[in-house]
Design a protein that fits this description.
With about 190 residues, this protein is an alpha+beta fold. It is built from four helices and twelve strands; from the N terminus they run αβββββαβαββββββα. It has helices at about 15-20, 65-75, 85-95, 175-185; strands at about 25, 30-35, 40-45, 45-50, 55-60, 75-80, 105-110, 115, 120-135, 135-145, 155-160, 160-165. The strands form three sheets. It has a seven-stranded antiparallel β-sheet. A three-stranded antiparallel β-sheet has the order 1-11-12, with no helix packed on it. Strand 7 (about 105-110) and strand 8 (about 115) form a beta hairpin.
Length: about 190
């Protein structure tokens, strides 16, 4: 139990904050859209499923991101789940001021947002609502279409570096239909949230 009264400001060292939260492994995605006829996107680690009914997801962009401003104006987005061999794609979409789509192959999602070649899957959404939260926004998207699931391992970020999952040679990998179905259909969904 904290001795800090609710609503009181606390001081947390930013470096310590990053170090501690860096111990939470995240997947790496690229959030894309089209604004004014031009594709736009940025690398995003703060992506999560939110609700099954209705199907909602969320991500948390910096409020100062020019890419996020353009995606917000478009009103729709596609979350591209990167595969383990897409480190350079993540790096390109994580850098400011570059033509991020130069030399990349992509096709439009049903909403028209870029689906990058080689991703494990994608989630097409419309913006449901946006909440301000500190120096970021919490964007809630209503899922309108889901992409096929490719074989492969995800690109992950842990303790300030890219990483991937490891499957021991003597252990059979879980079936693809077991993974997401188990998480989303877990009878005690509250265990995960």
């Amino acid at each position: 139990m904290s001795n800090v009264p609710q609503g009181s400001a606390t001081t947390v060292d930013q470096q310590a904050f990053r170090a501690v939260l860096g111990h939470f492994c995240t997947g790496v995605t690229v959030v894309t859209s089209v604004d004014g006829g031009e594709p736009v996107g940025f690398a995003c680690q703060s992506f999560s499923s939110l609700s099954l009914s209705p199907p909602l997801v969320l991500f948390c962009p910096s409020r100062t991101s020019s890419s996020w401003a353009r995606i917000r104006r478009a009103g729709y987005f596609c979350v591209n789940v990167l595969a383990e061999d897409q480190r350079e794609v993540s790096a390109v979409f994580g850098r400011p001021g570059t033509d991020r789509f130069a030399g990349l192959s992509w096709t439009p999602s049903p909403n028209g947002a870029p689906v990058l070649a080689g991703v494990l899957t994608w989630v097409d959404c419309v913006i449901e609502t946006v909440h301000e939260a500190g120096d970021h926004d919490v964007v809630i998207g209503r899922v309108v279409e889901l992409g096929p699931q490719a074989e492969g391992r995800p690109l992950l970020f842990y303790r300030g570096a890219y990483t991937v999952t490891e499957t021991p040679e003597d252990t059979a990998p879980p079936r693809a239909d077991e993974l997401l179905d188990t998480l989303l259909s877990w009878s005690r969904h509250g265990d995960w949230i």
